[in-house]
Structures are given as C-alpha cells and as structure tokens.
Design goal:
mainly alpha, Serine Threonine Protein Phosphatase 5, Tetratricopeptide repeat
C-alpha cells in the first residue's frame, strides 16, 4: 500500500514537472519575442544610448542561435548588426500570416534600408495600420524637435495608406513651419480626397494667411464656412485673412458669426474688438476688449494684446489718461513689449500739454 502511494506521488511529481516545463517553454518563447522587439526599437531609435556587449550579444543570440526561423529574432539581430541584406534573405522564409504588425514594420524597414523602397512600401501596404504607426513616430519626433525626420516619416505614412485623408492632414500640420511647400501639397490632397469637408480648406487657408496670401486664404476659408457653418476655426481663419487684407466688413461678419456659435469666446471678442478699432468704432472696441481682460488671466498673452489695443481705442477717443493706464498694464505684464516705452512717452507728453492748457 505504501509503495503504491509512493508511486502515485512520483507520477504526480513527474506530471507537474512536465507541465511546468511546457509552460516555461511557451512563456520563454513569447518573452523572447517581446524582448527582441524592444531591443530592436531601442537600438534603432536611440543610437545615442550605449549598447552593452551583453545586449548586443543577446540580439545576435536571438537572431542566429539556431536553424529555427523566427521573425522577431531575425529582426532584432539584423538591426543590431545592420545586416540588412542578410535579413531580407532570412526573412523571406517567414510566412506573412505569422507576423505581427510590428514585425511587418521591421521587415519593411530592412527592405527600405537595403534600397528596395518599392518592396518595402508594398509589404507595409498589406498592413494599413502601419501607416498610423509611421505618423505616430512623426508626431513623437515633432514633440522632441527632431524635425529633420518628419518629411520622410509622414511621406511613408501616406504611401502606406494613400487614401486616408486624415494622414495627409496630419502631414500638412506637422510640416507647416518646417516645409510649407510640402504642407500645401498635403492640404491640397486632403481637399482632393474630401472636397465636401472643411479641414483641408481651413488648414490651407491658415497656411496661406501665415504666408501673406490673404485673398487666397479668404476664398478657402469662405468655402469652409459654407461646407461647415459650425466650424469655429473656419470663421476664425476667414476673419483673420480678411482683417489682414484690410477688408474690415468681411472680418467683422466672420467674427460675429463665430460669436454666434461660441459666445463670449475671449479670442473672438479680442479679434472683433481689434477689428472695430481699425474701423474707428472705438466705443464698441473698448467694450469688447474690456470683456476680454475680465475673462482672461492677467498674465495671459491675449490680455497683453487686449490692453495694447484698448490703449489705442482710448487714445482715439481722446481719453489719454485711460490710454496711459492701459499701456502701463502692457508694460507691467511684458516689459519687453515692442515700442511700448515710446507710446507712453508720447501720450504722457500730450497729456501734460493738455493739462498745461
């Protein structure tokens, strides 16, 4: 009886060991796959970080430790060794249906680095989500001020998903400062893909406003307001383009329309007040600019400009003491504000002369 029980215990132990061994093998394989991908990304995108001999050796181990072909192992080892041609050859043995999205990305990456751009894009296009991955990388690099890689990353994103207008829109927005020409092309593509939607027209209008092309900007933003009357950015774009073009009536109409949708918005109140000041409707300008100041924190840049415009509105009405006070508020918030000292000196001189009389 005791021998039988001992035998059962031994069998139980053997079974448990076998199960544990199986679990360890499965977990080890999955862990190897994940760690390899992490190493691959680390080595590729963080070249400034030191790669220890242990990490380098582990990448090589994952890639070439046996005859078994594993996508993750091949990629990490190849990127560590920068052996793109060898990896392309070895990767061809891996069936596409067994790959994760990230492994398809890396396999295309090695093709790209081997100079086989068309094949790389064709591989990526089978997995459209990779287009979003490229755009995520572009946004991350933009946040890190690593702007030189933005054109190529965003170009790859739209190549992978050539009919996704949202990617063209993001490409244009990321390139507005660094490469306006490419941004214009991207926004025009958005308009081509979505002629009945506002975003392409608005963003291109904003860019043209920044470049001083006010007539073109007004036309684009006017189209956007017709397509989407509730689009606040479209009304803002139209108002600013018309303001800088000196078309005060259109600017006034645009900002009033925007206030109909977003009542009491400080930015819109400021622009409408500024427009009234240029239209020589100073009493209306004063009321709106005072509302901006009341509704916005005292050290906000919008408040600084509101005090500045308010100073001129008071001055235009002959209220020099109020104008001096407004410009002094500008000086207090931002002592380096351009020309403010000269404005105060001239107003003080005029006020003194008035008091003498």
């Amino acid at each position: 009886m005791g021998v039988l029980r001992l035998g059962q215990i031994l069998v139980y132990i053997v079974v448990c060991i076998a199960l544990l061994w199986q679990l360890t093998t499965i977990a080890g394989s999955e862990l190897s796959r994940n760690v390899a991908n992490i190493y691959a990304m680390t080595v590729t995108y963080n070249r400034s970080l030191p790669v220890t001999s242990g990490e380098w050796g582990r990448c090589q181990e994952y890639a070439f430790r046996s005859e078994r072909v594993d996508a993750s192992d091949i990629m990490s080892g190849a990127i560590a060794q920068l052996d793109c041609q060898g990896t392309v050859h070895r990767f061809a043995k891996v069936p596409d249906e067994t790959l994760t999205d990230i492994e398809v990305f890396w396999s295309g990456y090695t093709l790209e680095r081997s100079g086989e751009h068309v094949k790389a894009v064709q591989r990526w296009q089978r997995y459209p989500a990779i287009g979003n991955y490229f755009m995520s990388l572009a946004r991350y690099n933009h946040q890190q001020n690593n702007t030189e890689v933005i054109p190529s990353l965003t170009a790859l994103a739209v190549m992978v998903k050539p009919q996704d207008w949202t990617l063209y829109l993001q490409r244009g927005q990321l390139l507005m400062s660094e490469s306006p020409t490419l941004a214009i092309q991207a926004f025009r593509k958005v308009i081509e893909l979505t002629p009945d939607q506002a975003p392409g027209y608005v963003n291109l209008g904003v860019l043209y406003t920044q470049q001083g092309e006010f007539a073109a900007a007004s036309g684009l933003c006017h189209t956007a307001t017709e397509l989407e009357p509730e689009n606040l950015r479209a009304w803002q774009c139209l108002g600013e383009a018309a303001f800088y073009a000196g078309d005060w009536a259109v600017a006034e109409q645009a900002f009033v329309k925007k206030l109909d949708v977003a009542s009491d918005d400080p930015q819109t109140l400021f622009w409408l007040g500024r427009t009234y000041r240029y239209m020589d409707q100073n009493a209306q300008a004063v009321k709106l600019l005072q509302r901006v100041i009341q509704a916005t924190p005292g050290n906000d840049s919008l408040v600084t400009f509101a005090w500045y415009e308010l100073g001129y509105a008071f001055s235009n009405q002959g209220q020099r003491a109020e104008a001096i006070h407004a410009f002094q508020q500008v000086q207090e918030i931002n002592p380096d504000f351009a020309y403010i000292d000269n404005v105060l000196i001239e107003l003080s001189r005029l006020e003194d002369n008035q008091n003498v009389k």
